[in-house]
Predict the structure.
Amino acid sequence: MHLFDKCYGFQSAKMLKSLGCYPYFGPIESELDAKVVIAGKEVIMLGSNNYLGLANHPQVKEASMKATNKYGVGCTSSRLLATLDLHLKLEKELARFLDREAALVFSTGFQTNLGTISSLVGRHDVLIMDREVHASIVDSSRLSYGKIIKFRHNDLEDLEKTLSSLPAQKGKLIVVDGVYSVTGDIANLPEITKLCEKYKASLMVDDAHALGILGKWGRGTGEYFGLEKKIDIVMGTFSKAFASTGGFIAADEAIIEFVKHHGRAFIFSASIPPASTASALAALKIIEKESERREQFWANTRKMKKGLSELGFDISRNEGSVIALFVGEEQKTFRFWKALFDEGVFTNPIVTPAVPPGESLLRISCMATHTEADLDRALEAFERAGKKLEIING
């Protein structure tokens, strides 16, 4: 068998294109806001992580341009050799925002998890993770030399069974998503933190889909539950509510120093560009200052959930920032996506391997900048497309 046989045999994308239902890599030809132009068609954007609508905020864009004019377009080297004062300022502000001793900024959110987890979980340690954590955490486990154990999604009995079976002297790191990116489920941190204390395990929370929007001040899942001090490492990204690119961890200074000098994804990657750094800083200021954006985001999300439920769709029942609309069959999910796109609404189809076979869904996310008219129009499109494909009763 030739190495590339699998490449020439890969036909699923071609098949979807031939059916006119291929949902990926459509060129966006406008600014990223509540409505966008994709391949010449204006659609209501319900598939973006730009939760607070900051991607085109004037202050964020201005900060980006000023940073480019001052520092140039890139750092051309790793942080070991190319740390800007801007990087240090962002890390200081993130640590202050999350009330931590220190923070460390990576070039992407994916690299943040790769560099952090693989450097901390050594040969004699155990990494324990929810089965539905982000792909970057799964790949981090593959780079780790420690023992890897997965527990059933949000199943605290299964987690305790795992913890009780491990030797007391083992180093143990539990990793969960604060808000799970596919279904919007929120991690049960009150019970997880109790188990951490009982079995002397450390806790890392990937709060990519919670920071900026969850909690009174937007400090994420820990603040939402009043358990910020019970989390050892908070991980976040700039590509969601912060509307930039990059990622970070916030923790005790000793943890940050260790990852800084042992995390390969940090040491051997180019520094986050000046424009992205300045954008994240500007977004953080807006997140702290304009709480009304957070309130509007949740009002829009509640409206969308209520509307979809009343139409008869099977949607996720949680308080997370993501709405999962369950369809089931993969081809039907792609056809539903296309019917919605034709109606002027963009969503995200989630299929295997992101979900088990037969559990395909549409991932829907609102923005603070959606108007009531936008959401009403979107719900009308969902109703027409849902009835056409017999996902809801006609």
Notes: The CA atoms of residues 115 and 263 lie 4 Å apart. The longest helix spans residues 291-311. The chain has a mean pLDDT of 96.
